[in-house]
Write a structure and sequence with these properties.
Radius of gyration: 18 Å
Structural class: mainly alpha
CATH class of one domain: Mainly Alpha
Shape: elongated
Oligomer: single chain
Bound molecules: FE2/S2 (inorganic) cluster
Helix content: 55-70%
Distance between the termini: 66 Å
Length: about 90
């Protein structure tokens, strides 16, 4: 049953052209992209992810993956941080 669901999810994604989406929560069919979108609007707790997407944690196997995505630093954030640090350090020297 679960294998059929996973295969269907993969096929649906391939048909939609979403080759690089990864399912992080099989029970609720949540993708890494779903979690990143919520992260971008300020969600920082896995429990809030389920709530915002109108579902609830079931088996809990996805909890660590969702938490890792919420904690990961985006490339954009890193660039902004480097830029800020350069400006800050140059203003200290002046
Ligand atoms: S895989 Fe997310 S609750 Fe089961």
């Amino acid at each position: 049953m679960r294998l059929t669901f996973i295969i269907n999810c993969i096929l649906i994604n391939l048909l939609k052209g979403n080759k690089y989406k990864m399912y992080v929560c099989i029970c609720n069919a949540l993708t890494s992209e779903d979690v990143r979108k919520l992260k971008n609007i300020g969600v920082c707790e896995p429990s809030s992810v389920y709530k915002k997407l109108g579902c609830a944690m079931q088996c809990g196997k996805c909890l660590q993956s969702i938490d890792e995505i919420l904690q990961e630093e985006s490339v954009q954030e890193t660039k902004e941080q480097i830029s800020f640090n350069k400006k800050f350090s140059s203003s200290l020297r002046a």
